[in-house]
Amino acid sequence: MKKILSLVLALTLVLGCALSLASCGKKKTVIAVPNDTTNQLRALQLLEVQGLITVKKDATASDTLKQLIVENPYNIEFKEVEAAQLPALLKDVDYAVINSNYAIEAGITPFVTEGTNVSYPNIIAVKAGNENSPKIKALVAAVNSAAVASYIANTYKGAIVCDLVNASENGLDSTVDYAALNGATIKIAASPTPHAEILAKAKEILAGQGITLQIIEYTDYVQPNLVVESGDCDANYFQHVPYLNDFNAENRTSIVSVLEVHHEPMGVYSAKNTSFDAIKNK
């Protein structure tokens, strides 16, 4: 009897191990997403449109990644990463959802994007109270120009989408005393790509009026707002409004938008796959 019980127990263990190995043998799909609130929600909503997950309705800035995902039928493992670091991590994950500015800089191409109908305009932002200063009005006019609009359209060919409205031909504001600004310097904090590149066109317009546009590049999402709040920079250009609103709320800063310039469709990238078939066919 003991031999029979031992045999049954052994068979049960073998069967259990086999089932366990079969289950464990299915390696989880890993998708990297931005770790900041607004871009993370955008990334998850893009994946929801692709039928991979279900995202919480009426999500708030305080929701964690776990709270945002209410259904995960493919048992995807999500990795939260600082947005600028996502391209470098691409080889170590199955997929990554990346903002197009970082993707362009890294020379990578998405196989799916959220499209141009989802708009999070990147803005020129300044400290509240400075919106109508001569320097800022001159900066806004130079950016909201036909030269900048044409540069965005011709250079990025849809990877970056222009949001400028009523761009002027000469990039000048008739209410600004440019003679009084001759010799002045406007300091603006910006991400390298595409923000600093776009600002270079505005710099040419301002230079024609004797105004120097000093473009100071940052690769993070915190310092550009802090230097505007402190007054070290007159403006910044790197973020969209939802991110700015969250930043102001969390850091008690008073920074406002003065111009919507462009938006960057978020995309899904992979070094291993060209579709989601690897997930859906598991």
Question: Can you tell me about this structure?
Answer:
By secondary structure, the chain is α/β, with parallel strands linked by helices. The chain folds into two domains: 27-118 and 267-280, 3-Layer(aba) Sandwich (D-Maltodextrin-Binding Protein, domain 2); 122-263, Dipeptide-binding Protein, domain 3 (Roll). The chain contains twelve helices and 13 strands. It has helices at 2-24, 37-49, 65-68, 86-89, 100-106, 134-143, 146-156, 178-181, 192-207, 223-230, 241-251, 277-280, and strands at residues 30-34, 54-55, 69-71, 77-81, 95-98, 112-113, 122-127, 161-162, 185-190, 212-217, 235-240, 255-263, 267-269. The strands form three sheets. Strands 8-12-7-11-9-10 form a six-stranded mixed β-sheet, with helices on both faces. The chain starts with a helix and ends with a helix.
